[in-house]
Amino acid sequence: MFTRERAFQLLWTIVLIVSLTAVVALNRRSAPTAAMTAASGGEARHGFRLEESAARAGVTFVHQGPTFDAQLEPIMPQVAAMGASVAVADFDRDGWQDFYVTNSAEGSLNRLYRNNGDGSFADVAAAVGLADVNQAGTGVSMGAVWGDFDNDGDEDLFLYKYGRPELFRNDGGRAFVRVSERAGLPRWVNANAAIWWDYDGDGRLDLLLAGYWPEHLDLWHLQTTRIMPASFEYAENGGRKYVFHNRGDGTFEETSAALGIQSRRWTLAAAAADLSGSGYPDLFLANDYGISELFINQGGKKFVEAGRESGVGRTPKSGMNASFGDIFNDGRLSIYKTNISEPGVLVQANDLWVPKVRAAGTGVVEYENLASALGLDLGGWSWGAQFGDLNNDGALDVYLVNGYVSAGERTSYWYDFSQIAVGHSRIIGDARNWPPMRGRSLSGYQRKRMWVNDGAGRFVEVAQEVGARDTYDGRAIALADLSNRGTLDVLVANQRGPFLIYRNAVSAGRHWIAFALEGTVSNRSAIGARVEVQWAGRRQVQEVSGGSGFSAQNDRRLHYGLGATSLVDRVLIRWPSGRSQVIDRPAIDRLHQVKEPQ
Amino acid sequence: MSTGRAFPFTIDRRLLPPLLITSILIVAHLSFGILETYTRTGLAIVTAIGAELIMGRLTYGKWPHPASAYISGISVGILVRSPFLWPYFLCSLISIVCKYVLRLNGRHLWNPSNFGVCALLFLAPQTVTLLSIQWGNYIWPMLVIWLLGFAIVWRVGRLHISASYVVAFVVFAFARSALTGVPWQAALAPITGPMYQLFIFFMVTDPKTTVGPRWAQVAVVVVVALVEMLFRLAEIIYAPMYALFLVGPCALLLERWLQMRTARVMRLSSIG
Questions:
Q1: pTM score, two decimals?
Q2: Which of A267-300 are b and which e, b meaning 16 or more Cβ less than 10 Å from the residue's Cβ?
């Protein structure tokens, strides 16, 4: 007999089938397109095309990883998985952007590629004294940032390592002089992040150095194997943070405690910008094994940690990138932080923190995570990412590199990783308890992500289509106009892999404008200067950065795509000193050299 | 109704598990902020309770007690990890619907949230994973949750099930370590995580989907742990979920078959 119960059971069966079908359909729609076509036509569809040309440009650098204490040998590929970095600057002031890349094997040489201006580069690191910086006993390089700390007009270099941090003063682009001791830098820091910034607006560049491993560890001579993070998502046993305040006489004073920047989270990326509208740079730290931290600047005298209050520091993930971009062209800087996503295992998803409203009277901006809504969430085991208008259409795009350990193909360490990751601190905290990797990959051979912003809040992933097809273990990425053509090229530093230069060819008819700023009252590198370009009813804000992404520093000249527009209405510049400057109707398709008015 | 073993105060036994799981969630969130937003967990709970009330009322003409649906919803809200909202809604819905569809002699075959999360893991691996990290790294909150959990499963008469599973897991962990060469600490590590707290206190003990005799209940969870070990040897990450998904219904079907056979034998002998 067809009872009421049977009738409804039939209905619920249909509901169950529909629900299961919906899961399949939504999974397909939500997941990144795995089989994106690599066919040509990317330029026509998206307005640009990337072509890898490092070898042709004379850049044949292949990164080498470090080898730590033998006690870590079973998990060496994952603990020695960082060190590839890239920092862009015109170190010799010839008008062409050069770049410095780090190497991380003991005794290996770093490279400084001088831009010859004809599409080729020459390594001059040895000639200027920046090559042999990984000698045994001094640690190995993890990254570098350029900044004119002595305001003499040329870019100096700060090198951070698992080991002895180094400051090199640039003498006219001809030689670099090591001034680490005079500067007062600590003897040993295991750092993966550093940035130049002028946190108190005194016109001199200060330095933030963020430790990853605790600074007492010499990773080549371990007294214990209890060195690992105490938790996969709640670890606070990492390296300390340093803020070096520039006294202006070549020496620095460590001020982190006085400023309230005290954290022992495992920081992998740092970036600073005026997020709270105070006129002073705030600090964002992307931390591995835990929550992010947002330090709000209180007039250059103090910082208040507002991660939880603002929303960006509530959910612990594996932060690996910090970059800022005005993705909606409305003057608000969003924060892009990358994390881990491995299908079927761990979907932390990347975070795109978009400012929402300002909590009354606190100076703290509240953020909401729109990464999923905009399609910027799933990027594999994500590392460095940068905002930049790669197709000059007037909206900031996102380029992301990924991949952790590419070892044996079709092998995976994920199962063992997932076992140990949930373990209590007494288990996860001891390297001896970690299952050996035995040549297996961990999120290796991953497709890169290149998201094009359509200007209306939608990002489309086009990496394969436009020519970004490598699958190396990407770490750092920097954007730079290497040929002074008004297009952003892409520099990629891969861990234990070749350095890549993706030359960018933008379709004709897309205009641009760029600004090279020089401070006079402000720090001479103009780090922290805020430039708003207004055109065709749109406005886009960018800030000059002293380091962003993961172990990277972009071309500090600010580049704006304008699309088909042939007129820029106005440019507003707010210098770190607080001075304002207005430029009406500047010429387009050219780089403007702008000096801060006295 | 019976209140089970004597306590200084009495409380509806059906409310104990919801109280425990709610306590775990609140403590974990306030201490470690495990919920990215309240929206996802809230959506999972509201969906589960709403579906249960509607389906129970329409199917049987009476309002069902929402405790079971609440546990399913909150389990989904804690266990499922996804940047999207839809998995929380659909997982809760599937968990409840399966109770009304996949039935045998008036009993549902799968623990609802076990069915729901397994369905999502099978069908949506690109966008859905399960909670696979710790709640903090402090020993005391973990001990409190374990002690509270064991006290409540003892109170509701299911301690033997949880305890048997823990013992079996530990024994099989050492076996896995011996077989694979992985440090025994790593093999044991998963049981120190929060997913296992939910699994041990709420899934394997589900009264609706466990067999009748106490000895059989113990045998079934040992088999669950054994199958889990086999899955783990095959490096399947969500081994306990899949093991329960397979073993639980098989045990119920076997029990039902044995009951029918016994009844037939008794019927034949009474006729004879």
A1: 0.92
A2: bbbbbbbbbbeebbbbbbbbbbbbbbbbbbbbeb
